[in-house]
Write a structure and sequence with these properties.
The complex is a heterodimer. By secondary structure, chain A is of the alpha/beta class. Chain A is built from 10 helices and 10 strands. In chain A, a hairpin with a 5-residue loop joins strand 1 (4-14) and strand 2. Classes of the chains: A alpha/beta, B alpha+beta. The interface between A and B is medium-sized, with 27 and 23 residues. Bound molecules: adenosine-5'-triphosphate and magnesium ion (MG). Chain B: It is a multi-pass membrane protein.
Chain lengths: 266, 420
């Protein structure tokens, strides 16, 4: 049995004014331990819905998610989440934010301190550990969010547009960081993104989803993440194979968007 | 009349000072803070900083106007005060047989309470006899000038101007009105200054403050009056918070609690606490208990609503994040919900303290043995305007002080307010 398995997952939102949205229909997927899976798709195709069900924030209408053989029904510390923004606790310092998970578990302070020191070193925020989080820039805040997630040592890390609010340069640096952390920790990561570059670069496996109803449209196995870890991201992007896949996926998404538009007009 | 004049003077000072300060500033170095870089400032609220200079001048102006219109010794210039000194007017009188005479009335206008000698009667012509009178400033005096001019004599003119019962004639330094019985009522010029029983000068208020803080008022010390008011506010506020905050949390966290308390809270919220005074007096009497219950009610709804808003305002991603990090429900409450609601609660506490302070003074006006409100209402019964004004100033300063303290506490305890 797979590490994380999704079987015939469907999600249907009944709208208050009647009617419904089929956000996911019969999605089945197996994810192995240590995989880095990136998810692309036009807006509204159910990416966030899928991730929220995996995190346990939403209850699916049918189907099942199992992690390590145990069904998922509710949030839990074995599935960490990195949000786009606004998830840090402003009333805590950087250190307090990072050690939140272990502290809730009752890990003794000295042990927590070692974890926090290590992680802040890794994300390069050691000198900011006693700062208030609202004093940090957006990129720094996302690094804190990443460190906080890792401090809890989850089996799976779920990321919904974690770099979406950052500028291009910071975003590139953060992509490198995510790759290095993945290599270093061997965590299973599911990453939703709107950037095709990012999905290709970070996804060992790439899923393109299609809307109405939300489903998996196409799946790729990619070599770029493996190559990019610890290397120059731009050199990987210069690879002709990279450009080819990118063009193919863009074309695919454009087609779907066009269908959505014409569907909306009809 | 004086009020309108004060208003005009006040606005003249507002614009005059603005122009003067602008003129002085222009001749000095130019302003070099970031605002000077903005090209659009009118309409940009962030470019509007309170001009501290204006604030200082504003306070000074209040005292200057106050002093100038009350004849204060602390202020070098005054608006014209009431006439003081000796004056006189001439009246003409007609006897029943048609013969005419005239006489002068000598008048001394003195300060209230001064001990003075009646002036000598004025000169006269014909059968009329001179008269004299004395009167305090701002008062008027009835002069039966025709009495000593023989049986049936009738006054027909004052200062050469004909007069009849009910009519008024201007005379030097005052005016004369004829009563229905034919006597003359002399009112000296009042000027534009206000009498101390309406508006005492600043130094009288300060003198009262010193006297009362030393000797107390009606056997109760000033600190005791103020202390009682503060104690009531504090007790009511603390009780209101102790009950209100948990209730607000319950309403924010449970649908049943929200549904149960919503009608009560929404109904009680718009009822002004002052409207509860009669009921509270009926139920609890006029003692301490009643006042604390009233203030408790004043604070309660504000704190419930603040706590409820604080819980409802939590960003769902923070809740999700905490659960994904393994927090239990109790840990969620303690580490996320409560700290996240603190800014709202502080805002509520500031409002509640303001409402409580206003309510306590009003409640003391209605019924109390001691307290700031009690002091001023007792003083007003004796027309001790200086004590009333002193009390109002103290009440205002304490209310202001409470707000500043709350704001400092807020900056210190919830520095993340408005930063998410
Ligand atoms: N709580 C909800 N109630 C009703 N409809 C919802 C709800 N959440 C999502 N949907 C609908 O489900 C569909 C999928 O939404 P979802 O947020 O998963 O899309 P997404 O792929 O993450 O889009 P984006 O890329 O814009 O974030 C959309 O059509 C959306 O309108
Ligand atoms: Mg989404």
């Amino acid at each position: 049995m797979a590490f994380l398995s999704i079987e015939n997952l469907s999600m249907r939102f009944d709208l208050p004014k009647g009617g419904h949205v089929q956000a996911l229909q019969d999605v089945s997927l197996d994810i192995g331990k240590g995989e880095l899976l990136s998810v692309l798709g036009p807006s509204g195709c159910g990416k966030s819905t899928l991730l929220n069900i995996l995190a346990g924030f939403l209850a699916q209408t049918s189907g099942q998610v199992t992690l390590n053989g145990k069904p998922v029904n509710g949030p839990g510390p074995e599935r960490g989440m990195v949000f786009q923004k606004g998830a840090l606790f402003e009333w805590m310092t950087v250190r307090r934010n990072v050690e939140f998970g272990p502290r809730m578990k009752g890990v003794p302070e000295t042990e927590r301190n070692t974890v926090v020191e290590n992680l802040l070193d890794t994300v390069g925020l050691h000198s900011f550990k006693d700062k208030a989080v609202y004093e940090l820039s957006g990129g720094m805040q996302q690094r804190v969010a990443l460190a906080r997630c890792l401090a809890n040592d989850p089996d799976v890390i779920l990321m919904d547009e974690p770099l979406g609010a950052l500028d291009a340069l910071t975003r590139e640096k953060m992509q490198g960081l995510v790759l290095n952390l993945w290599k270093k920790t061997g965590k299973t990561i599911i990453l939703i993104t709107h950037s095709v570059d990012e999905a290709l670069l970070l996804g060992e496996r790439l899923l393109v989803m299609a809307p109405r109803p939300g489903r998996i449209h196409r799946e790729y196995r990619l070599p770029f993440a493996e190559r990019a870890a610890g290397a120059d991201l731009r050199s990987v992007k210069d690879d002709p194979a990279f450009g080819q896949t990118k063009a193919e996926i863009l074309e695919m998404i454009w087609e779907m968007e066009e269908q959505i538009m014409s569907g909306a007009e009809a | 009349m004086t009020g309108l004049f004060i208003l005009i003077v006040y606005f003249a000072l507002f614009f005059g000072a603005a122009a003067a300060v602008a003129l002085i500033r222009r001749s000095m170095v130019s302003i070099t803070d970031f605002r000077s870089l903005k090209t659009v400032t009118f309409g940009d609220e962030s470019a509007v900083m309170p001009d501290r200079f204006a604030s200082i001048i504003s306070v000074v102006v209040v005292f200057l106007v106050w002093g100038a219109f009350t004849g204060s010794k602390l202020v070098p210039f005054h608006v014209p005060g009431p006439f003081l000194g000796t004056t006189a007017f001439v009246y003409e009188v007609e006897a029943p047989d048609g013969s005419q005479g005239s006489a002068t009335v000598n008048i001394v206008v003195h300060e209230m309470g001064a001990d003075i000698e009646e002036p000598a009667p004025g000169t006269s012509e014909g059968f009329a006899q001179g008269d004299s009178a004395s009167v305090a400033a701002w008062r008027s005096v009835l002069i039966s000038a025709q009495r000593n001019d023989g049986e049936g004599a009738k006054i027909v003119a004052v200062e050469g101007k004909p007069i009849s019962p009910g009519g008024t004639v201007d005379v030097p330094d005052g005016s004369v009105t004829m009563t229905s019985k034919g006597s003359l009522n002399f009112t000296p010029d009042k000027g534009l200054q206000m009498e101390a029983i309406w508006m005492p000068p600043p130094e009288a208020v300060v003198a009262r403050l010193i006297e009362i803080s030393r000797n107390g008022y009606q056997n109760v010390g000033l600190l005791e009056h103020v202390g009682w008011s503060l104690w009531r506010v504090l007790a009511g506020f603390v009780l209101g918070s102790l009950i209100g905050i948990p209730l607000g949390y319950a309403m924010g966290l449970s649908g049943w609690a929200r549904g149960w308390f919503d009608p009560i809270v929404e109904f009680m919220r718009p009822v002004p606490p002052l409207a509860l005074i009669p009921l509270v007096i009926i139920w609890f009497g006029i003692g301490e208990q009643g006042k604390i219950v009233l203030l408790f009610l004043a604070a309660l709804w504000v704190m419930i609503i603040a706590a409820r808003a604080g819980v409802s305002g939590v960003n769902i991603t923070k809740v999700h994040a905490a659960y994904s990090l393994g927090a239990s429900k109790w840990q969620m409450l303690r580490h996320v919900i409560v700290p996240n609601s603190l800014p709202e609660i502080f805002t509520g506490a500031r409002v509640a303290m303001g409402v409580c302070w206003g309510t306590v003074v009003a409640a003391e006006l209605v019924a109390a043995e001691k307290g700031a409100g009690k002091m001023i209402v007792a003083a007003s019964k004796f027309q001790s305007t200086d004590i009333v004004i002193m009390g109002i100033v103290i009440i205002g300063l304490i209310g202001f002080g409470i707000d500043i303290l709350m704001r400092k506490a807020e900056e210190w305890l919830v520095p993340w307010k408005g930063k998410s």
